[in-house]
Amino acid sequence: MAAYQAPLTDMHFVLHEVQRAAELCAAMPGTADVTADLMDAVLESAAQLASEVLAPLNRSGDEEGCRFEAGRVHTPAGFREAYRAYTEGGWVGLCGDPAHGGQGMPKMLAVLVEEMMMGANSSFALYPVLTAGASLALVSHASESIKAFYLPRLYSGEWSATMCLTEAHAGTDLGLLKTRAEPDGQGSYRITGSKIFITGGEHDLSDNIIHLVLARLPDAPAGPRGISLFLVPRQLPDASGKPGVHNGVSCGAIEHKMGIKASATCVMHFDGATGYLIGEANKGLACMFTMMNYERLSIGLQGIGLAEHSLQVASAYARERLQGRAATGPVNPAGSADPILVHPDVRRMLLTVRADLEAGRALSVYVGAALDTVHFDPDPQRQARAARLVALLTPVAKAAFSDRGFEGCVNAQQALGGHGYVREWGLEQNVRDARIAQIYEGTNGVQALDLAGRKVVRDQEGLLETLWEDIESFLQAQATNAALKECFLELKAALAQTRQVSDWLRQAAAGNPDEIGAASVPYLRLLSQLLYCFMWCRMAVAATLALSRPGADKAFYEDKLTVARFFMTRQMPVRHALAAEIKSGCATVMAFPAERF
Amino acid sequence: MAAYQAPLTDMHFVLHEVQRAAELCAAMPGTADVTADLMDAVLESAAQLASEVLAPLNRSGDEEGCRFEAGRVHTPAGFREAYRAYTEGGWVGLCGDPAHGGQGMPKMLAVLVEEMMMGANSSFALYPVLTAGASLALVSHASESIKAFYLPRLYSGEWSATMCLTEAHAGTDLGLLKTRAEPDGQGSYRITGSKIFITGGEHDLSDNIIHLVLARLPDAPAGPRGISLFLVPRQLPDASGKPGVHNGVSCGAIEHKMGIKASATCVMHFDGATGYLIGEANKGLACMFTMMNYERLSIGLQGIGLAEHSLQVASAYARERLQGRAATGPVNPAGSADPILVHPDVRRMLLTVRADLEAGRALSVYVGAALDTVHFDPDPQRQARAARLVALLTPVAKAAFSDRGFEGCVNAQQALGGHGYVREWGLEQNVRDARIAQIYEGTNGVQALDLAGRKVVRDQEGLLETLWEDIESFLQAQATNAALKECFLELKAALAQTRQVSDWLRQAAAGNPDEIGAASVPYLRLLSQLLYCFMWCRMAVAATLALSRPGADKAFYEDKLTVARFFMTRQMPVRHALAAEIKSGCATVMAFPAERF
C-alpha cells in the first residue's frame, strides 16, 4: 500500500500562484515577516512529519484502536512518540498567539498543514486539532492570567484540551444541556454532569487534559442563552504549575466506532470538578462560536486530506493494474492486458476525485485568507468584508469538503474493485475515517441549515452579495481573456442561476419557514458547485499565466487546464438538477405524515 | 437498536397489487399451483426466519467475524444453528428444480425472500445464496447423473457450494486466468491453481463444499474462449455418497474486510484436485453467464434489504429523538423539544431512502417476473421478449439497487448524527456491509459497461425498444387517468429524454468507442431513473385503484401517492444533469495523460 505523500507542488500552486499568499502576508503587520520561503519551509517540514511519522501509524492505529482500562485510555503503539515529535516541532501552536508562545502563522498556510496531518492520520491529527481549537477560545475570551498560565502549556503540547459540549439528550440542540456549575464561594465553580462524544477526553499523550465545558449556572435562563463556558483541568495545577491532584473528572467509557478508531471518543463525568468561568456568564455558546469557524474549516480538511491519500493509492493502482484492453486498441500489446487507466470510467472516477479535492483545497486557502484578513488586517472595512465571507463560506466549506471527501474516498476505493474492500490497501479505512467529518462539528445538515437560514434568508449584512461581488470582479478582470472563455461562461451562468435560486429561496421562506430546511442541503451543494467552479476558473487563470513563463513545468500547468475543463463539462451540469429540486418546494417533503415514518 | 422486521405489507403490495403475481403464476404450467395464499405463506415464514433467527446474529457476527485456524474457517457463534434452521426450512432450494428436490418457486417471489435475508443478516445470507447460484449453473449445464447426485444435497443445504472465478491477477478480466485442468485419463480432471475472493470457500456450516471452478484445459485457446467449468468437491463423495477423502482443496487464508465480516472470503488452493467438467469444454464462461442474471439480481437485493433495515432504525430514531423545534412552531410543546421529524431535511433524507428502496423493490419483482417468463412460460415469443428485458435490466438492477442501497444506508446513518457513527445502533455496520454489493459480482462500473456497450450500442435484438414498448403501452393504458397526470407527464418526458440520449450514445460510439465507457455510469443512472419513475407510476396506479375499494387501508395507499410525488419532484430532476454529463462526451475524460495520474 502506498503511504501518504503530501502534495507539495499542488499546495505551492494554490498558496502562491492562485492565492498569492506572500503578497497578502506582506501587506498585514501581523504577518509581515511570513515570506514565501518561510511558508515553504513550514510546508516542507509538515510534509516530512506527515509522511514519515504520522502515516506509518495510520493503519496500525486503526487495527489496534484505543484501549479503555480502569478509567484510563491507552492510545495505540507509537502514538506517544509521534505526539512528542509533533509537539516538539511546535505544530500545536502554529496559529497560536505569539504573546503566549504561539507561532502566529496565517490560517491560509495552516489549512494546508492540517490537510496533510488529516490525510496522513486522521485519528492522530484530532488530538492536537482539538487543543488548537480550545486555545483559540481561550485567546478570545479568557482572562490574562488564564491565558498566561494555560496557553504556553497548550501550544507546547505539554497539556492538551477538549471541547465538552454534547450530552446524551443534547447534541445539535445544545440548549437542552443539563450539566451544572455552582459557585464554590472562592471565585471558581463546581461542575457536575456527564458529556458524551468527547474527542480526546482521556488519553496518555499529554501530562494533563484541559476541558472546556459548557454548563449552566444556578440562576441561568433556560435554553441556549443560559449556557456558560468553564475551564476544567483533569488535574488541578499545583503550586509549581505541574498537574497536581485529580479534579473529579473521569472517563466512563470510550465509544466503539465505524472509524477514527485511534482517536478516543469519550464519555466524561464531572463530579463537582473545579472549573473556571471563561468569558461572561451565560455567554458560553458565543464563546464557542468564536472558534467554530476555524474548527469547522479544520474538520472539512479531513475530507480533503483523506481523498488526496485515497487518490494517490488509487492512481498508483490504476497505472499498474493490468486488466482488459483499451476500447481503441491495446496500449500495452506486449503485456497480458492494458493498465486499467485505459478505461474511461476509471478515469472518470479518479478525475472526479481530483477535480473536487483540488477545488476544495483552493477554497480552503481562500477561506483561510479571509480568516487572516479578519484577524490581521488593520483596515476595518476589509476586515468586515472578510468577516462576511467567512460567515457565509464556513458552513459550505465544512460540508462540501467532507461530503466530497467521503465521496472521493468511496470513488477511489471503487477503482480498486475487491482490493478496495479488503483492509490491505487502506482505502476502506479512509472511507470509514472520512465518514465522521460529515457528522461531527455540526452535521452537514446543520451546516446547510445555518447557511440557508441564518446566512441567506435571515441575513441583513449582505453576505451573499459580498461573494457575488468577488466573483463579478474576477469575471470583470478576465473579460478579455479569450483562452478560458468557456470556463468563464460557465461561471457566469452558474452565478446567475445561484442568485436566482437564492432570491427564490428568500421569497419562498417568507411564505413558509419550512422552505429553508427543505432547500438547505441541495442549496449548500449548489452554492458549493458555484464556488468550486470559481476556484477552477482562478486555478485556470493562474495556470495560463504560468504557462507563459519560460521554463515553467508545462505538463503540471496543462493538467490544471485539463481538469478545469473536465470539471466544467462533467460536474457542473448537476446545478440544473439542484436548482429544480430546490424550486420544487417543501410541499412534497412535508406531506408525509410523521406517524407513518 | 431496532431489529430488522420484514416489510410484509409493502411486499404484498408490490407482489400482488403492482405485479399481479398470482395471475402471472396461474397462466404458466410450471407455476400454476403457486397461489397468492401460498406466496403469502412463504413470505410470512421467511419473515419469521429473518427477524427471529438471522437478525439477532447480525451484530454479533460482525463483532466476532470468521476465524481462520489451521486451514479451517469457524463461523461466528450461532451461525451453525441458524444454518440448520435455514436449511431445514428448505430455503436453499426455494427456486430449485423440483425434479431434484427443489421447490420450483418463481423468482418474483424469491427476490422478496432474498431481500429479507440480506436485510436481516447479509453475511449469513451469502452462504446459501452462493449455493443456490451454483445449483442453477448445474441445472442448466451438468449431466443428469451429476444433477441427480449433487442437487438434492445442495438444495437441502447438507452440502454448500461456491463459485471460484477470480485469481490475483484476473478479476474483471477473467480471460487472464491461469488455473489448469488436466485430464486424468479416467474422465475427470486434475485442477491446479489459486483463487481469491471466494465467498464461503471454507466454513463449518455444511458437511461438504462443492466448488465450481473456472480453469483452462491444456489445449485451450488463450483468453476468455479457453475457459472451462469444473465441479470440485472439497471432499470426494465415498461409495455411500457421504463426504469422503479430502481432495487437494485447501483454504490458505481469509480476507480482513470493511464489512460482511461473518462471511468467509477465502483464498483457495487447488493442488491437483479431482474435478468434473460441467458443460462443454472451453464454454465455461457461457455456463457461468446462465446463472449470472439470477445472481446479480440477488446481489442487488442486498442493497435494498440493508437500506430497508437502516430506514426502519432511522425512522424509529427520528420519531423519538427530541431535538430543536419545528420552524412553524412547536409540535410537542409539553416536551423539552420536538421530534427531529419536524425538520424538513431529516424528512428529505428518510423519504429519499424510502422512494429509492420501494421503487427498487418493485423493479426487482418486475425483473423477477421477466426471469420467470423466460423460465416457465411455454410461449416462445413471450419468452424471447422477457429474455430481452432480463438482458437489459439485470445490470441496471444490480448497480442501481446496490448504489442506492449504499446511499440509503449512508443517509439513514446521517439522520442519527453521532449515534449513527457508533456501533451501538447498527447503522454503521449496514454502511460497511452494503458497500460490497457495489463491488462484487462485477463492479457497478462493469455493469454499466455491459449495459452501455453490449446491451445498448452493440445490441441487435432491440433490447431498449422492448422496454420503451412496455413503458409506452403502460402510458397508453393510463391515457385517461387524470388523477396521476403529473406522474405520467414526468415518465413521458423521462422516456423521451432517455431515448434521445440512447440514440446520441449509439451515434457517438460509432465515431469513438471510448464514448461508451465515458457515458456508461451516468447512462446506467439515467436509465435507472427512468425505470424507478416507471415503477412509481405503476405503484401510484395500483394505489389509486386500491383507494377506490371500500375498506382499503387508506393511509397505506395514500403514503404511496405521497412518496411518488416526492420522487417525481425531488429526485427526477437529476436526469437533466445526467443527460448533459453524458452528452459532454469523452474528450475531457480521455485528455488527462495516463502517466500524470
Secondary structure topology:
The structure is a homodimer of 597-residue chains.
Chain A: H1 8-18, H2 21-26, H3 36-54, H4 58-64, E1 67-69, E2 72-74, H5 79-88, H6 107-120, H7 122-141, H8 144-155, E3 159-164, E4 180-183, E5 189-199, E6 208-215, E7 228-233, E8 235-237, E9 243-246, E10 249-254, E11 265-278, H9 284-320, H10 344-376, H11 380-415, H12 418-421, H13 427-435, H14 444-457, H15 463-477, H16 485-511, H17 514-547, H18 554-571, H19 574-583, H20 587-590
Parallel strand pairs in A: 3-6
Antiparallel strand pairs in A: 1-2, 4-5, 5-11, 6-7, 7-11, 8-9, 10-11
Keywords summarizing the entry:
homodimer; 597 residues; alpha+beta; seven-stranded mixed sheet; two-stranded antiparallel sheet; 57% helix; 11% strand; globular
In short:
The structure is a homodimer of 597-residue chains. With 597 residues, the first copy, chain A, is an alpha+beta fold. Helix content of chain A is 57%, strand content 11%.
Strand content of chain A: 5-15%
- Residue windows where pLDDT falls under 50 for at least 5 positions of chain A: none
Terminus-to-terminus distance of chain A: 44 Å
How much helical structure, as a percent, in the residues of chain A?
A: 55-70%
- Count of runs of 4 or more consecutive helical residues of chain A: 20
Class per helix and strand makeup of chain A:
alpha+beta
